[in-house]
Design a protein that fits this description.
By secondary structure, the protein is an alpha/beta fold. The protein contains 16 helices and 14 strands. The protein has helices spanning 2-20, 42-54, 71-90, 101-105, 140-145, 163-170, 183-190, 192-202, 227-232, 265-268, 282-288, 300-306, 313-316, 325-334, 339-349, 357-367; strands at 26-34, 59-64, 91-96, 113-116, 154-156, 177-178, 210-214, 238-242, 257-258, 274-277, 293-296, 321-322, 371-372, 375-376.
């Protein structure tokens, strides 16, 4: 019954969209679509700014609405899908940062270019087509009916090393994957000091002790416990920030732990002295800022079987991977870290570090060229 309803829903969308496609295309309109959150992401805001800096006459439309599964909300979301279809039918370019129903299931005008700017410049863990029917992945039949990650003209990655991975993940050819980096990496590179100052102004007490930032990846079907970490850390010596995945939002009740809800995990990297994660791409963003990164991979063998990894962390980050938090904490206390290994990790997964990734993408959107000035950033 579920699959029959999905097919019927898809059929209705196609009928509605047919009439929207009769409307003329605005060759200076870009629509940004996301179901990750209800406000434009940093990538969206920065890219729209770069587009306007090249051609101020461009119209930018944000359609950001988090999708929930309760029936009442889904009915309201259908009206949001109608708005999406209107703007898809009348825009020159669509930029998405996640799976979008209308983008993937509908047949679009040839004049529409669709760009996937995924919310991670690289992917440590497998996802998308790599994890169909696995524990943390999508149901294969549902993915087929809803044309999962279909219709992308380009997918943005952070490095040439990620081209084959992103091609497999999104089921596109390698030529579609552009290793130019993302606007938020520009933000991190160009505004590191300003972000740090903003965070420390809000939380001046973080200046008094070294800061440990723990930012685990999203686990779809399980909740995390932070007890081992909280019980191990010496709060007289360190400040501890626990930043759960924005989709999951696990609760931390210990008053000694900072949550820093006003700031994103990426922003908190600027004030961290040590970054602990597991299979999150935040490790790569931390490497950009030369922050000591450690991997608390207590469920490594289980995770390999239920999801899988694209990066061999134990090989590429030797001496930084731990199954027991006590051992990881002791390593932090020793104070020695292999920064040369960290640099190799960064350089492999962040090919483009000039701080103008957004301008490269904006220039393609406006002028159809993957260049900035005379330099060809695609080579």
């Amino acid at each position: 019954m579920k699959y029959l309803l999905l097919r019927f829903f898809k059929f209705i969308l196609k009928i509605v969209y047919f009439f929207f496609k009769l409307l003329p295309t605005n060759t200076k309109k870009v629509v940004f679509i996301s179901r990750q959150q209800n406000v434009p992401s940093l990538d969206f805001k920065l890219l729209s700014r770069d587009i306007k800096s090249i051609d101020s006459s461009y119209q930018v439309v944000f359609l950001c609405k988090k999708m929930k599964t309760n029936k009442q909300y889904l009915i309201k979301y259908c009206f949001h899908l109608i708005r999406q279809m209107y703007h898809l039918a009348t825009s020159k370019v669509c930029v998405v940062d996640s799976y979008c129903i209308c983008v993937s299931v509908l047949k679009h005008k040839k004049s529409l270019t669709i760009i996937q700017i995924w919310h991670a410049i690289a992917t440590v863990k497998k996802f998308g087509y790599q994890t169909l029917s696995k524990k943390y992945g999508r149901n294969q039949k549902t993915a087929k009916i809803l044309n999962m990650h279909n219709n992308y003209d380009f997918v943005i990655s952070g490095s040439t090393s990620m081209i084959p991975v992103f091609a497999e993940t999104f089921n596109v050819s390698s030529e579609c994957v552009k290793p130019i980096g993302t606007p938020r990496i520009d933000y991190l590179i160009n505004n590191n000091r300003q972000i740090m100052k903003k965070v420390k102004t809000k939380y001046p007490e973080l200046n008094k002790k070294k800061v440990i930032l723990y930012a685990p990846t999203f686990r779809k079907k399980e909740n995390l416990s932070f007890d081992k970490i909280i019980d191990t850390v010496d709060f007289d010596k360190y400040n501890l920030i626990i930043k759960s995945h924005p989709v999951k939002k696990e609760k931390v009740y210990d008053s000694r732990v900072y949550k820093c809800h006003e700031f994103s995990t990426m922003e908190l990297l600027t004030i961290a002295d040590y970054v602990i994660t597991d299979y999150s791409a935040i490790s790569i963003e931390a490497a950009i800022l030369n922050k000591p990164v450690f991997f608390y991979i207590y469920d490594y063998e289980k995770y390999i079987k239920s999801n899988g990894l694209n990066i061999d962390l134990k090989r590429e980050m030797k001496g930084c991977c731990y199954k027991k938090f006590n051992s990881l904490y002791q390593k932090i206390n020793v104070g020695k870290y292999d920064y040369e290994q960290l640099k190799k990790f960064k350089d492999k997964y962040v090919s483009h570090q000039q701080g103008n990734s957004g301008l490269i993408l904006a220039n393609y959107i406006v002028n159809g060229k993957w260049t900035v000035g005379k330099e060809d950033e695609n080579e």
